[in-house]
Amino acid sequence: MCPESDGSSASAGRTFLVTGRDGQIGYELRRALAPLGHVIAPTLEELDFTRPDSIRAVVRASRPAVIVNAAAYTAVDRAESEPALCSAINADAPGLLAEEAERVGAVLVHYSTDYVFDGTKGTPYVETDAPNPLNVYGATKLAGEQAIASASSVFLILRTARVYGARGDNFMRTMMRFAREKPELRVVCDQVGAPTWSRSLAEATALVLARLLGVDGLPPGEAVAPWSGIYHLTAAGITSWYEFARAILEADPNRAAHRCTSLVPVPASEYPTLARRPPNSALDNGKLREKLGLALPHWREQLALVMEDLA
Ligand SMILES: NC(=O)c1ccc[n+]([C@@H]2O[C@H](COP(=O)([O-])OP(=O)(O)OC[C@H]3O[C@@H](n4cnc5c(N)ncnc54)[C@H](OP(=O)(O)O)[C@@H]3O)[C@@H](O)[C@H]2O)c1
Questions:
Q1: What's the gap between Cα 79 and its chain centre?
Q2: pLDDT confidence bin for 214, thresholds 50/70/90
Q3: Does 27 qualify as catalytic in the annotation?
Q4: CA gap 258, 44 in Å, rounded
């Protein structure tokens, strides 16, 4: 297993087990959690969500105080033709992680998605709104939430949306590549949500954990128990894919290399995809603000920071 930090600066010598080590959020978590303790981030060979035994073995061997689950099957369109695999990774594995967390007295932090909703609500979704996923990915993520809630007594489920950053497969990087390759880009303008920077999600997770675990002497489960539940965690502001694409292309430090001279807004009906997507993906972050005292900056501020990094 790959140790990520020696824990020398640990406030309490706690072990944090991070799954999905090379994913958008997992990669950032390894850095963001390092000041809090000893971070363990197994490789896919060591921890494969399609092999339940590997989940049991890793948790039992590392006995973490906190498991932060950033591993998932995230190929939303491909999921339509691989429902069993998607379900094993997004629903069964988080359920087993929750069972194992309970067994070793760890707290499970898990990420979920705006795609648990059907997007027909006229205002941002709150945590108590009824989910109704439109696609396989969303249905398996919802099943993962339910499996966690039934297997463990203390957990934090953070629903986020439209994750992007300097690494990984994401909308921002796709738009920047297409702008270099194509003269015209047609982007959906009638699906709205909040694009959210992977690093801000990892940092917010670390901040929440630092605060909740900061009470000396309490085991992690007891320290987090009063806050256990589902929270919506996205950047502030709401925008369409089209407006986000426009902001990306304007801010791209490499815009001199763009071939694209025309960015065209199109309705989702003109851009058919294998998986249906919710028209309204906006998540109300009020509960997070009120209970945990935390709010992420506006998506435009986050985009500016990512672009600064890229420049
Ligand atoms: N991306 C978004 O827009 C978005 C939106 C809302 C919620 N979320 C949620 O946020 C979380 C993190 O998303 P992300 O964007 O960081 O995802 P990501 O970049 O696709 O990373 C997913 C990670 O999961 C790992 N993984 C895949 N199959 C696995 C398996 N069988 N066993 C163990 N690990 C496996 C991947 O490993 P490999 O790299 O080796 O395949 C990768 O490290 C997920 O729960 C996702 O549902 C994401």
A1: 17
A2: confident
A3: no
A4: 36
